[in-house]
Amino acid sequence: MDRRTGAPATALSYAMKLRQFCRSLADFPERGLTRADIWPGLRVVFLERRVTIAYSIEDSVVVVARVFHGGQDWEAELRSDLPDAEEDSL
C-alpha cells in the first residue's frame, strides 16, 4: 500500500497549501484585516474558512505569530497572549 494515500497524504497536502499561503503573504502583506484592537500591528487572514493566520509586518518582513484551526477562539487566544504591560495600554 502506498503510504502517500489516505489521511497522511491529505494532511501533507494541506500543510503544504498552508505553508505556500503563508509564504504568499510576502507578496501582499497588507491584505489581511487589521486587528490593532488585539495587538498593535496585528493582521489576520483566513485560509478556506478553516484556518486563521495571525501575523504582523516588522521591518518589511511578515512574522506569522499564530495559526489557528477553525474551531478555536483565536481572538481570545491572542488576547490571552498579551503581556500585562500591553494589555494596560490598549
Describe the structure concisely for a colleague.
This protein is of the alpha+beta class.
Write a concise keyword list for the protein shown above.
single chain; alpha+beta; YaeB-like fold; 3 helices; 4 strands; disordered C terminus
Overview of the structural elements:
With 90 residues, the protein is an alpha+beta fold. The chain has a single domain (7-89), classed as RelE-like (YaeB-like fold, 2-Layer Sandwich). The protein has three helices and four strands. The chain has helices at residues 7-24, 74-80, 84-89; strands spanning 33-34, 43-47, 51-58, 61-69. A four-stranded antiparallel beta sheet has the order 1-2-3-4. A hairpin with an 8-residue loop joins β1 and β2 (43-47). Residues 85-90 have low confidence and may be disordered.
Secondary structure elements and pairings:
Blueprint: H1 7-24, E1 33-34, E2 43-47, E3 51-58, E4 61-69, H2 74-80, H3 84-89
Antiparallel strand pairs: 1-2, 2-3, 3-4
Provide the CATH topology: YaeB-like fold
Class, according to the CATH hierarchy?
Answer: Alpha Beta
Low-confidence stretches: 85-90
Largest sheet: 4 strands, antiparallel
Total count of domains: 1
Write down how many β-strands occur, each being a DSSP E stretch of 2 or more residues. 4
* Amino- and carboxy-terminal Cα gap: 55 Å
Strand order of the largest sheet: 1-2-3-4
Integer average pLDDT: 86
